[in-house]
Amino acid sequence: MFLSASPDSQTGVRHSTFESLRLGRSSQSIASGFLRFWDSLNFKKDREFVEITVLLLDEKLNSVIHGFTPVGHANHYKPSFKADSIVKVDRFEVSSH
């Protein structure tokens, strides 16, 4: 999942909604409320950092999506993460757990 701060009104690009997401890799972009993020650690491996976990909000559907940014991309994206902002999400994969 790749996030950037890009409100709908500034991008001019039509974004998909949470409701339209399907399982698998997606070429769609979604605009979402960025609620919260935190570091996820592997406690079995001496608290090794494994990813940044994020919560995204779709206010129209009143639903939340749980996502993550892998460790390889974390340092690039973490400085731009701001809770309670609007973000554009693209290049992501949808799975059910």
UniProtKB/TrEMBL annotation:
This is Uncharacterized protein.
